[in-house]
Amino acid sequence: MGLFDTLSKQLSEKSTAAKLGESVGVSPEKVQKLTEIGLPTLLQGLLKNSSTPEGAASLAKALDQHKNDNVSNITSFLNGVNKYDGVNMLSHIFSGKEKQVEKSLAKETGLKTNQVAGLLSQLAPLLMGFLGQEKKKENLDASGIAGLLSNVASQGDSGMMGMAANFLDSNKDGNIIDDVGNLFGKIFKKK
């Protein structure tokens, strides 16, 4: 099982979804709906950022800061997650357009924007911890980051990862943010 599938599976466990839901006042089912879309969106944002040498170097440095995060027990990790760090991560991942992403995710999941922001601010550090450990394990440098992310992105079994990859930059202008709204409409029409 790939890294993305492992993370998705652990997040879909009722106890983990309940823990996340408690933090923002939503049901585990709503959390699961958000993670199905939110994780691929975060991953695609990171993939886009790593597409330039400067972005890959910056991401490599950030992953080094999270290479020793203990993400083996997600519930335990979430108990100590730094949400403020997560908010900063979201700003970097979505190039300062995280509010647009959060608004689109809220519209598609039925959550409030602040609930989406609260959940993403926990999911981002978790994803960075998983990726940091993978970077450390594979001994990757900045040039290997895009390959790592592409590999992780290709592992998604749920279909959401593939859809996110296909639609996040559907107009191929290099800006995933302007396509986020279109992505969600296409995903939910296919379900």
Describe it.
By secondary structure, the chain is mainly α. It contains eleven helices and no strands. It has helices spanning 3-12, 14-24, 28-49, 53-65, 74-79, 83-93, 98-109, 113-138, 142-154, 160-167, 180-190. The longest helix has 26 residues, at 113-138.
What brief labels describe this structure?
single chain, mainly alpha, globular, 11 helices, 191 residues, 75% helix
Write a short abstract of this structure.
The chain is an all-alpha fold and 191 residues long. The protein contains 11 helices and no strands.
Q: Overall mean pLDDT score?
A: 81
What does the main sheet amount to? none
Q: Please state roughly what percent of the residues sit in beta strands, choosing from under 5%, 5-15%, 15-25%, 25-35%, 35-45% or over 45%.
A: under 5%
The SS-based structural class is mainly alpha
Order of helices and strands: HHHHHHHHHHH
The rounded Rg comes to: 15 Å
Helical fraction: over 70%
Low-confidence stretches: 181-191
Number of strands: 0
Number of helices: 11
Q: How would you describe the shape?
A: globular
Distance between the termini: 24 Å
Strand and helix layout:
Elements: H1 3-12, H2 14-24, H3 28-49, H4 53-65, H5 74-79, H6 83-93, H7 98-109, H8 113-138, H9 142-154, H10 160-167, H11 180-190
Helix pairs in contact: 2-3, 2-8, 3-8, 3-9, 3-10, 4-8, 4-9, 6-8, 7-8, 7-11, 10-11
